[in-house]
Amino acid sequence: MTDVTAVPVTAVDSSATTARLLAEAAGRIDAPDVVIAVSRGGVRTVHTGGSAEPGPVPRERLHHELGSASKPFAGLLLARLVAQGRVRYEDRAADLLAPGLPVHPSVRRITLRHLLTHTSGLPGLPADFYPQAVPRWSSDPYGNYPADRVVRAFLRARPRHRPGTRWHYSNFAVSVLGHTLAAATGTPWEVLLHQQVLAPLALEATLLRPGPEGTDAIGHRRDGTPLPALDTGGFTAAGALRSTPLDLLTFLEAHLGAADLQDTSLSTALAEVTRPVLRRGRRHAHTHTLTWFQHPTPYGPALFHAGATLGQQAFLGFRPETGLAVAATATRRVHRKDTFVATAYELLTEMP
Questions:
Q1: What are phi and psi of 330, to 5 degrees?
Q2: What 8-state DSSP symbol labels residue 34?
Q3: CB count, 10 Å around CB of 29?
Q4: Which of 312, 138, 307 is nearest to 216 (CA)?
Q5: Mean pLDDT score of the chain, rounded to an integer?
Q6: DSSP secondary structure code for residue 198 in this structure
Q7: Ramachandran region of residue 275, left (φ > 0), alpha (ψ -120 to 50) or beta?
């Protein structure tokens, strides 16, 4: 069941070609609920569909779990705090979290930039995370690992590599970044993110906790069994956000210059997070900004980030040179033959 939705928040693209491309893309994704939302220069087209019957709240207005697609929000927050002079990228996390506490020399060298760019030398998750998580791997692996435990795991860590020398994707590191910024500013992460990012960009439907009853998308296992809302425990900054596809478009459009921003620190931050800062892999083929993966396309660079939780997926991407933004969500866990990310990525990189 599908529907091409006219979205009242902005002018709706009436292009039959765009609508057809989105419908074809959604048809390749196997999930109870699918939303693909595109903005071209602020003109939006939204396609909704999936195998489940739609509920009373339109799919594009449900709060979807973003998983790791939460990280660009954390990165923008750091960039804005730097622009305000409240922290520096080269500030050492251990000094902000626990001044004077003896830590491993490599931990002492880890900066805020290292944490955000996955170059800290930390593993993907703390070593002691797995014994408590494995028995609940398909239902609640994070809920029993709170914030203070994440911080303790960081302060006693023994990184395998010197910070800044290797790239290794780490939910652990970005979670530590969140706790470090909260400590540095004396402000809880949820409040800090709302004050610095969500409220200024008018992202009223982007939340760190489940919304009112009936307003959250329901995730599903591979076999279609519904799942409860994900509890990320102490890994909030790395993957706790929930948002509607419409709010996600607003977030992406801000990176394309659509927002009328009065605060220069936010404008500076939005520009900063689109600037390449490192290259990795064979022949340095992979480019990263502070918060986004960056790939070349015939239409200029594409910046993107995907995320997944136990039962949902999200994809965010934009092309600065053409004003194109793509936000996509699906309510089924990643599986071996899954096409969600590849389909959304194809739209981002190949749509003229």
A1: -150, 145
A2: E
A3: 25
A4: 312
A5: 93
A6: I
A7: beta
Report helix, strand and coil shares of the chain as percent, to nearest 5: 35, 15, 45
pTM over 0.90, yes/no: yes
Task: Confirm if 343 and 25 have CB atoms less than 8 A apart.
Answer: yes
DSSP three-state, residue 202: coil
> Are 148 and 98 in contact, with CB atoms under 8 Å apart?
no
> What is the DSSP secondary-structure string of 297-327?
-BTB-EEEEEEE-SS-EEEEEEETTTTEEEE
Distances (CA, A) of 198 to 177, 194, 204, 311: 18, 5, 7, 25
Residue showing tokens 């609940």: 136
Report residue 215 as tokens: 């307003």
Q: Convert the pLDDT of each residue in 144-187 to its tens digit.
A: 999 999 999 999 999 989 999 999 999 999 999 999 999 999 99
Cβ-based neighbours of 167, under 8 Å, separated by 6 or more: 117, 118, 119, 278, 280, 288
Residues in Cβ contact with 337 at an 8 Å cutoff, skipping those fewer than 6 apart: none
The fraction of the chain above a pLDDT of 90, given in percent, is 87
Query: How many Cβ atoms sit within 10 Å of the Cβ of residue 346?
Result: 15
CB 63 within 8 A of CB 329: no
DSSP state of 216: B
| Token code pair at residue 175 | 């979670």
pLDDT in tens, 26-50: 999 999 999 999 999 889 999 999 9
pLDDT (tens digit, 9 = 90+) per residue, 13-28?
447 888 999 999 999 9
- pLDDT per residue over 268-309, tens digit each? 999 999 999 999 988 778 899 999 999 999 999 999 999 999
* Angle in degrees, CA 241, 246, 249, rounded to 5: 85
What count of other Cβ atoms lies within 10 Å of the Cβ of residue 2?
Answer: 14
Residue from 208, 207, 231 nearest 219 by CA:
231
Q: Which distant-in-sequence residues (6+ apart) come within 8 Å of 55 by Cβ? A: 62, 214
β-strands 43-49, 64-65 pairing? unpaired
Query: Which of helix, strand or coil describes residue 98?
Result: coil
- CB-based contact 321:301 (threshold 8 Å): yes
